[in-house]
Amino acid sequence: MSTDRLRDAFVKSLELDPSVDVTALNYREIPEWDSIGHMALVASIEDAFDVMLTTDQVIALSSFQAARDILKDQGVDDI
Amino acid sequence: MSGERSLVPEWVRSEVVALRSATGQSATYGQLRERAAALPLPSPGLVLVKTTNSVDVISTYVACFLAGVPIALIDQSVTDDVVASLVETYQPIAVVNHSAVLHGYSVSLESGGTMWQHREGPAAPTHPDLAVMLATSGSTGSPKFVKLSRSAVVSNARSIAEGLGVRDEHRAITSLPFSYSYGLSVINSHLAVGASTAVTDAAVVTKDFWNLVRNERVSTIAGVPTTYKMLRQMRWDASDLPHLEYVTQAGGRLPDPDRLHFLDTLARVGKDFVVMYGQTEATARITIAPTELLREHLSTAGRAIPGGQLTISSEAGSREGAVTYHGPNVMMGYASTAEDLVTGDELGGILETGDLGYLVGEALFLTGRSKRIVKVFGVRVSLDDVDGWLQQRGAAVAVQGDDSIEVFVESHDLEAPELRRSLADYLGIHLTGVRVTTVEKLPLLSSGKVDFITLQGWVGR
Question: In a mutagenesis test of the A interface, which of B234, B265, B269 is the best target, namely the one with the most A β-carbons within 10 Å?
């Protein structure tokens, strides 16, 4: 399913257990999503969806939902 | 730089804001001075502070400093067990901002909501010059601290401010933890000229950080290599920040291509990129490489800060050598026991940095770590110094082991276990940090000098 691509990016880059509900995650709510984890997540999303996030988008990416919105803004339909 | 003066100059007006957070908490210079006059400390001793980048905790640090109360700063990630161990070792008169109640301490909640724990009974005595203690780099688990005198802290704050041209209308931001020497020096160098510091614990990847930078009109941001890697990955272009004037990079080596990237990125918007180098053992920063110097020598660590001097001691015919720093900001020494708290200055303003390098004019270039300066359990040890100590006791030399000092003893008159114990005591490290091996004869080069390379190969055999 298409939503899995973003879920995968979160799970892989933040090194989470696949059972974690990433759709409810927010920056700094879990120890893995600190500033270092954040940049790993950004790299993973850029790779997975072949996009280049702007500085403002990197800063705005503070939750799974925010990530979805940003990808929509980037013109990605298949999240 | 002469003598000891107040961290905050007398002429700074009381109503000037010294610290302000995004949530509106603030402290003026007047409030800091009032707090210094009214600290809840009826008897002397060290104050141990677990740091948070908050106005209240930073104010506590400043108030203690202004009042002449020695403070040890530890990072908030330090575990309760380690805190308990530090308290047992150093016997502080108070512990601030630590929530696990300590045995032999009673709790109070001071203004600002920060928790204080007060020792029931006398604290360990401290040397009158001792002002700040900071953990040695990479040793949040070890109880070893760098001891800094009041004059070292004040002189480094002023030198950094002078070197960077910090003025009272400038604004810093706490982009680094203030338990870290570099982070602390950002605050100190701005206090030293009556400037303001925006307080946050947010990282550069957050909206909160940049909102504060904009709202507080921050003029400088300090970062370590990791910070700059993040900023580069974020494609930060320093645009739309009319009050930002320059950024500093210290705390490790940023590769030349990244340096060039930031020099160019910042130049495009009329701002400066400045590289600095230093270590906790010299309070914070000891060199400065402003934009102009970096354009000339991209990979330099900079020239010495005002009041400091760099010398290189190299073998004849060799360009690189051990980098020594001379200045009023050199530490007093290390502390690992309560007795160390009363020891005075041991270094006399001369610090073996442990780095190798060379000078081109005033510009320092670093080439690597000295093999004769090693770190054992987070403590810097000069093997040449150890050799000097050993040779007073017989034919013995030391080389680096695996997180240990390996001593090779020639004479059978020197009892290995006794020597081991004495040396560990002398260095102030645990016994397991020293290993002694007796050998028939020390290997020599044809010059008659000890063959350290062969000895290094004998380690572990």
Answer: B234
Residue B383: strand, helix, or coil: helix
Q: A24-51, pLDDT tens digit by residue? A: 999 999 999 999 999 999 999 999 999 9
Q: Identify the sign of the CA torsion B327, B332, B333, B334.
A: negative
Please report which helix (H) or strand (E) contains residue B105, including its range: strand B105-109
- The length of chain A is 79
Residue of A nearest to B230 (CA): A39
Residue B155, both tokens: 């002189």
Q: Which residues contact B115 (CB under 8 A, 6 or more apart)?
A: B96, B97, B98, B99, B107, B108, B109
- Of the candidates A36, A59, A62, the beta carbon closest to that of B210 is on A59
Kindly compute the dihedral angle of the four CA atoms of residues B161, B164, B170, B176, in this order, to the nearest 10 degrees: -80
Looking at A12-26, B209-223, B425-439, which range is the least confident one? B425-439
Rounded Cα distance between B460 and B437, Å, is: 10
> Does any CB of chain A come closer than 8 Å to the CB of residue B213?
no
Distance CA B125, CA B103 (A): 20
Considering only the beta carbons, identify the residue of A38, A43, A54 that sits closest to B205: A38
B369 dihedral zone (left: phi>0; alpha: psi -120 to 50; beta): beta
Q: Is the ipTM of this complex over 0.90?
A: yes
* Phi, psi dihedral angles at B112 (to 5 degrees): 100, -10
Q: Measured between alpha carbons, how far is residue A30 from residues A11, A38, B395 in Å?
A: 12, 11, 56
Assign residue B460 a region: left if phi > 0, alpha if psi is -120 to 50, beta otherwise? left
Contacts of A35 in chain B (CB under 8 A): 203-206, 230
Tell me how far apart the alpha carbons of residues B131 and B29 are, in angstroms, rounded to a whole number: 20
Q: Are residues B207 and A39, on separate chains, in Cβ contact within 8 Å?
A: no
Structural domains in chain B, sorted by start: 17-367 (3.40.50.12780), 373-458 (3.30.300.30)
Q: Is this model's pTM higher than 0.90 or not?
A: no
Structural domains of chain A ordered from first start: 3-73 (1.10.1200.10)
